[in-house]
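Could you please consider the sequence and fold appended to this message?
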Amino acid sequence: MIRSFTLAAALALLSASPLAAETPAPIDYSAALADPARPATDRERDAARKPAELLEFAQIAPGEKVGDYVMGGGYVTRLLAAAVGDKGKVYAFQPAEFIAFKAQYGTDQAAVDAAYANVDAVSGPFAAPAFPVPLDTIITVQNFHDLYLKPFSEETGARGSAALFAALKPGATLVIVDHSAADGTGTTLSDSLHRIDKAAVIDALANAGFVLEAESDLYKQADDPRTANVFDKEIRGKTDQFALRFRKPG
């Protein structure tokens, strides 16, 4: 279920003419999922990660310029590359700090960059992604909490949020998916459990200038007590996660 937070937009639709109120036809993402360049290991994860629903929530369209903030092994990057098509571009960001910690991050980034003509690798400081052009959308999946890990300074979260805001075009969107922490815990469990309180994410991005537009229960797991480390074998792959879409005003 997706909940919209744009009251002004809803009122505008109610007052518009029938023609203006028509909803654009939904985009079919089946071709992106069926892209032969996607490895079997990605396809095996699709049931849990619900890629078509994620692309729909993020409103990814052909021809767009999008960023994958902290691309990891490239699961989301490959989906985005297929979804935006030949006329679009995906900027796959891998933090320099992550590559320094584990060389595989750099190896994975280089492999995805080489495999897709419309993917460009981007690296740099975690809180200062050097996206070369203003973007239509940025997606970050299970990584926003990392801005609050103990090795980073206390300002990293605010700086990262501001950098994401600056990287987007006016009117563009930011989509955050992350592991839910218990309500009221803020960012305090980001290091120990790799979870973050949804309210803390909303506050951080509001402070950076973003407006919360919609929320989805796509990854809701009511059975997750939100007290275990997300890498614990009992809960891994079954964590409660939130999905939020923010818009940069303008």
Residues 9-21 have pLDDT under 50 and may be disordered.
